[in-house]
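Let's study a protein:

___
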Amino acid sequence: SKREGEKREKVKEREKWKKKEGKGGKDERKRKEKIEKKKATVVFSWNSLPEVLKSILPQNYSYLIENFNELPSYRTTENFIIPQFELDVFVDIDNEERAREWFMAFESKSKTTMPETKRYEFKGKHVLFREMRHCIHSDKVKKKQGSREIKRQQSSQLRNTNCTSTIHLRLERWRIELSHPLEVNIKFTHNHVIISAESLSFRRVNEKVRERFLELFKDGHSPASAMYTHEDELYLSAADEQELLLLLADRASNPDYDYIFNLFRQYRQDSLGDRNGSAMFRRLAEVVNDYNNSGKGRAILQEYDSRSGKAFILCVVTGLMSRVHEKILQSSEICYMDASASFEPLNTSITLLYTSCAVGALPLGLFITSDELEITLEKALNLLKSILLQHAFYGRGAQLGPKIFLTDDSSAERNALELCWPESIRLLCTFHVLQAFWRWLHNSKHYINKADREPIMQKMKEILYAPSDLEMHKYYCEFKQRFYGYTAEDSSFYASLHAEFIPQDREGLQMETTTPNSNLTIEYSESNKNVEDDITTFINFLEEIKEDYSNGCAQLHTALNKFAERYKAAKLKSIPRLVSFLYDINRELDPAVNIRSGSMIRVQVESVKRRKTEGSGRKRKPFSITNNKENLENSDPQIIPGRKTKKIGKKEHNLSKNVLKNQLN
């Protein structure tokens, strides 16, 4: 029985082999017949194709047409006639890469967009390449992409028109031996106008156009400027108006702004890295080192670190800035300092130092900071001084600085300049003085009549631009006589400006005393003559400060050291300057505190609003990614918190105290 079973199995195996050989022989015969049949078919070059096929099939290929069936034309609701046909054709393409290139050329030639709707899985044994695609306006594409909310149902940009046009590409291994291996089945049955603005707006962007935008980004263009530059190039390249309209409407040649912006964001991410955190600073450190090694200028970087309290600072002195320091005499005489923000999401501040000459404004240096605190600006100025050359400020040197600094009424900027360049004179910019006064006049809280705003502003200009003290006093008296004591609505006095001279017949007594160092003018109030100093209380206060300094943290040490430096710097100027400095500290806590020192105009615009960030009086909320403490502790300490951009008119000017300081050393 065992032997009989073995014989039966051998017989079965032989029969299987015979069947396989017979089947293989049949397949081989069929394959040879197909090859002979294809060889007998007529091959068309592109020039010999029918006109309707020339409008959609790419050039530089030869075609073997197996079936071409023209269908009745379709008439749209706009009364346009769309040709309809079915085509089975073979193309002289023998690999997947060239097949994809042919399809991209087909879309470009026919002005259609046909996404892939069915993906075939093939191992490459029999089928090398296969794709099924539908028109982008078909119902199948809409279902595949998911439902989208359309605000305007009758919009011309409606994607789904139930278009039935398809294209099927197939490349089989056995056809490789043929002259035209790639099989293409086209069902050209569009039910919409192909060359129209709405249809062309759905097209894919051409790869060459994409590369052109990347080149523009490398040249320093923003998304907007790159778009305008590309449109100008389209205007110049168009042969006539009709071609220009087609180029501008076609998304393949003229992408929309959203595409350009997303491409720019991707380019920026790939070329520059992250926009915040440790990765950004690593990349920035490399850029700074490369810039310093290039010989084009100098730069210095302080990385942001929330744990150690370090602010982000980047100082730059370009080759042009160095030449301005060396060649321009005005760089030793006057330097303007102005800060701007709201340029990018982190809202960092860009502070520019520049001078002026016959050709206009010329830069002397710049620095970028993560905030506008006084301690940050002081550190930035010191870092900037470290990269200035020996001939800085036309030979005066980086330590001495220019003779005059012109700024607005930012206390942080003025105090930082006073610490870094104490020998320089700090003057207020007349534009910012008038700007602050203008905003005060137009603030509805002050109830200034519209009819009075113009004459008040005119008188203020006369006072500000007076060529001498006598004329200034004359204009001031006219201003006081006309507007002081006048009561506006809600009993709001125009005299709330608190701008006044101190007459000799006032109760206040002005007395000059002489000290070994300098002649000091000290102003006393009659109410303070009989006040005795409580020495014991003051000594206890000093002991308390000493104890706080000994037991305090590093930030408190830094703050007290800065206070000591400012105290000494103010004392070297004059006793009135020292008194003004001490009252300024009290003013941050009590806005009602006023101080009179010297014989200058004291314009005390207490309610004028401004955007400029104040100095040490500003309090910032600690940055936190989430409310989870663990996430906060594990977060990147080099992530710069984004500062919120506040509207103009949210912060108070310190014009009064800065006018008091606007005097010669």
Q: What stands out?
A: Residues 434-484 form one domain. The first strand starts at residue 43 and ends at 44. The CA atoms of residues 26 and 652 lie 95 Å apart. The mean pLDDT is 76.
